[in-house]
Design goal:
The protein is of the alpha+beta class. The protein is built from twelve helices and four strands; from the N terminus they run H-H-H-H-H-H-E-E-E-E-H-H-H-H-H-H. The chain has a four-stranded antiparallel β-sheet with strand order 1-2-3-4, sandwiched between helices. Strand 3 and strand 4 form a beta hairpin. Helix 3 crosses helix 6. The chain is globular and about 70 Å long. The relative contact order is 0.10.
């Protein structure tokens, strides 16, 4: 069976508008996770228009409206989400989803009810948040999950969950409630390392979006014919307020790979200037790559 083709990109004018909105949302006081993920989807899929963006938000609202009114405990919230999303609506993941770009696009995950762990977790987070649940994302190494209860490190107060009352669920596995041993096994399976308390810290919305874009870049890197996907994913990541300087190098290399030798060489030279302040040997290697790229113009 042939793998599905990725969706077609938007027009240059549409892309420019989406990127403007993405940058604006990312720099807002309280970035909205669903909005940012949907804008990523619109950059990937030219068929996702404003009506489609609104429809995805409305569906998340609708799902939240089907939850029971204010379950009493974090465990009750977790069970309610599992029963609704995992069992009634069948949101889950499978190994084949890792081969599909759509598994990293929120509107497609909402439609197909299939996706990568992090996008399924975004669905759980957004539905639960709309319903008023004490919920947060947990970026375990190699496998994103969702926590219910008081966020680790948060101060307790009136109406907050009792300290220690926290529940982890795995949306990829239909919302299965995780024991401490389960979480340890997920981390060990992904990294071979032990679970540390720092791994259970809540993931900020921008960190979630950065990880989504990392997944898209990794998907594209394994498919050289999809360099255009890798390029827009890098360019969106560069619009986030905090990003690794090496993304500029990655963008430059992609430009060269796509035959945009002059632009790629210019980007390589600019990156060499940045990295030269800390590692001149690396900077000179990058300048050599820039010279090679310029030579391809002849």
């Amino acid at each position: 069976m042939r793998p599905p083709r990725p969706p077609h990109p938007p027009s240059p004018e549409r892309s420019a508008e989406l990127r403007r909105r993405f940058a604006q949302e990312a720099r807002s006081e309280r970035p909205d996770l669903a909005t940012l993920c949907l804008l990523v989807g619109a950059e990937a899929d030219g068929a996702l228009d404003e009506a489609g963006l609104d429809a995805a938000q409305v569906e998340l609202d609708r799902l939240a409206g089907e939850l029971p009114f204010r379950p009493a405990t974090p465990r009750a919230w977790a069970v309610a989400l599992r029963d609704l999303l995992g069992e009634r609506y069948g949101f889950h993941g499978a190994a084949a989803d890792y081969q599909r770009l759509e598994s990293s696009l929120l509107h497609e995950v909402v439609r197909r009810r299939r996706g990568l762990p992090i996008l399924l977790s975004v669905v759980w987070l957004e539905v639960a948040r709309r319903a008023g649940a004490p919920v947060y994302g947990v970026a375990l190494p190699g496998h994103f999950v969702v926590g219910f209860g008081e966020e680790p490190g948060a101060a307790s107060g009136p109406g907050s969950a009792p300290l220690g009352e926290r529940v982890l669920v795995d949306p990829y596995d239909g919302g299965r409630l995780l024991s401490g041993t389960d979480a340890e096994a997920l981390v060990a399976g992904a990294t071979g390392a032990e679970l540390r308390a720092s791994m259970l810290e809540p993931a900020a919305p921008l960190d979630v979006v950065a990880r989504v874009l990392n997944n898209i870049r990794a998907w594209a890197a394994a498919r050289p014919e999809q360099s255009a996907v890798g390029l827009w994913a890098v360019e969106l990541a560069l619009l986030l307020p905090a990003h690794a300087a090496r993304l500029r190098y990655e963008r430059a290399v992609l430009l060269v790979q796509r035959g945009e030798f002059a632009a790629g060489a210019g980007e390589l030279e600019a990156y060499a200037e940045v990295v030269g302040a800390v590692d001149e040997a690396v900077a000179e290697e990058v300048r050599g790559e820039a010279r090679t790229a310029r030579a391809m113009l002849n």
